[in-house]
Write a structure and sequence with these properties.
There is one protein chain. By secondary structure, the protein is α/β, with parallel strands linked by helices. It is built from 9 helices and 4 strands, in the order H-E-H-H-H-H-E-H-H-H-H-E-E. It has a 4-stranded mixed β-sheet with strand order 3-2-1-4, with helices on both faces. Helix 2 crosses helix 4 and helix 5 packs parallel to helix 9. 27% of the residues are buried.
Length: 207
């Protein structure tokens, strides 16, 4: 992949790739409004219809929108191209950021051999993406039973694969913070509906 070529094998070996994963339906909802606002190469903009009407579409644009929340295939590609990934559940990070940051920095140190200073301050403020406030919250657009049915139909298989990776003994995969009990951190009821979040990926290299 492009990142692997750009970094090269030596730098990639000491770089930690981390994925902060929010609830998939929230992620797709955010992607819908993002794609309506900013053109995405290779895809048509979603229709001007509201999100509740869009959920029944089967166009390529609809498939691309749902793909934003299907983390299982995304993690498989990351592992194939970069060889390692740290999974950070957003729900856990928002509850208490410090354990996640500590374990992430420890992982960076193990991979790079260099210590990364801990941040002096960790904000507990609610993180917002660029389009926060520009569209209605998801729970105001669709009733809870519909949300549950959508999450089951669109993301169940992908979520199960993420859980398999996160709780496996695969040395390429780290769950931060590390827990043994298989918490279902991507399920719709694991995160308060309405939280405005996007999935974030970051490369951390200790120089």
């Amino acid at each position: 992949g492009r990142i692997a070529r750009m970094y090269g094998p030596e730098r990639l070996e000491r770089t930690t790739f981390a994925a902060l994963l929010c609830e998939p339906l929230q992620r797709a909802h955010s992607a819908f409004y993002h794609m309506r606002s900013i053109p995405v190469a290779g895809f048509d903009r979603p229709s001007s219809a509201p999100f509740p009407d869009f959920v029944g579409e089967t166009s390529q644009t609809a498939l691309a929108t749902w793909a934003h929340g299907r983390y299982g295939p995304q993690l498989d590609r990351i592992l194939d191209e970069l060889g390692q990934v740290a999974i950070i559940p957003t729900a856990w990070y928002l509850t208490s950021a410090q354990p996640t940051l500590k374990e992430l920095l420890d992982l960076v140190e193990r991979r790079s051999g260099k210590r990364v200073p801990a941040p002096a301050h960790t904000s507990s403020a609610k993180p917002l993406h660029a389009f926060a406030g520009s569209h209605r919250p998801l729970e105001e657009e669709l009733p809870s039973p519909v949300l549950a049915d959508l999450a089951e139909a669109l993301f169940r298989s992908s979520n199960e694969h993420v859980y398999e990776l996160a709780y496996s003994d695969d040395p390429r995969v780290s769950l931060l913070p590390a827990v043994r009990r298989p918490y279902r951190f991507l399920d719709l009821d694991a995160i308060a509906v309405g939280t405005e979040l996007v999935s974030i990926v970051t490369l951390v290299t200790a120089e």
